[in-house]
Amino acid sequence: MTAQPNFLLSVEGLTVSFDGFKAVDDLSFYVDENEIRVIIGPNGAGKTTVLDLICGRTKATGGSIQFRGKELTAMREHQIVHAGIGRKFQNPSIYDDLTVFENLEISFPRGRSVFGALAFKRDQEVRERVAEVAETIFLADQLDTSAEYLSHGQKQWLEIGMLLIQDPELLMLDEPVAGMSVNERKKTAELLNRITKGRSVIVIEHDMKFVEDIAHKVTVLHQGRILSEGSMERVKSDPKVVEVYLGH
Ligand code: ADP
Ligand code: MG
């Protein structure tokens, strides 16, 4: 199987079984450059497992995941991060006792060790990049705040920032607006729409208003397979989707 050159990510025939139970079953989908793809579907549909397979946390039983011509199913988790894929889990993994600045700073990719003038130049570079990312995640005024004092929503943004600072080409977010206020959800949609210049995003989400605000294309999963795929308009009016998901 060869990946179409114009897709950033090509998933083909992807399957994983846990003790004979196929959580992901012969799944194929393709993500474009600069695309925001949203994956929806009932609990247990296999959404989180798909992200686990892409980031190498779970090994596929069969099928292929091609990213920029690289076969991810043959790679380890850290190699996949290096290849340009960032993954945010449902619970934020930030350092509560560090400030916003420090949380972002420690996430800046390390190069080889440098000395003197070069180290100074690197410090400059890190500070500028931290400032830029802090602006994007609405935390520019909170750089010296200890992360423990941030609201739930701000903690989620900080973790997105910790991924952004590594400049991934594909960013994957699992239910990023769960527990957020309406206003925070709106700002998160704005944030995601802003960061897709030069990168693609895969988001798992249940909040249909939020999905509508961000999705270029929606993939509906059910029992490890695609139930429907296309524009929000299209999947929303698909009787199969209404029956197994939206109707509830
Ligand atoms: P979703 O994110 O769509 O709610 P998941 O991907 O978390 O669904 O789970 C899909 C199915 O696979 C569920 O039935 C879940 O219990 C099962 N599953 C997920 N991970 C494992 C695992 N590591 N071992 C066994 N079963 C798993
Ligand atoms: Mg899940």
Which homologous superfamily in CATH is the superfamily of the largest domain? Answer: P-loop containing nucleotide triphosphate hydrolases
Fill in the CATH topology of the largest domain. Rossmann fold
Number of extended strands: 10
Radius of gyration: 19 Å
What's the story with the biggest beta sheet? Answer: 6 strands, mixed
CATH architecture of the largest domain: 3-Layer(aba) Sandwich
- Taken together, the total number of domains comes to 2
Strand content: 25-35%
Percent of residues in helices comes to 25-40%
The total of helices stands at 9
Distance between the termini: 38 Å
**pLDDT averaged residue by residue:** 93
Strand ordering within the main sheet: 6-7-8-3-9-10
Q: Which geometry do the CA atoms define? A: globular
SSE order, one letter for each helix or strand: EEEHEEHEHHHEHEHEEHH
Low-confidence stretches: none
Counting helices, strands and paired strands, the structural category is: alpha/beta
Bound compounds, each kind once, are:
adenosine-5'-diphosphate, magnesium ion
Brief characterization of the structure:
With 248 residues, the protein is α/β, with parallel strands linked by helices.
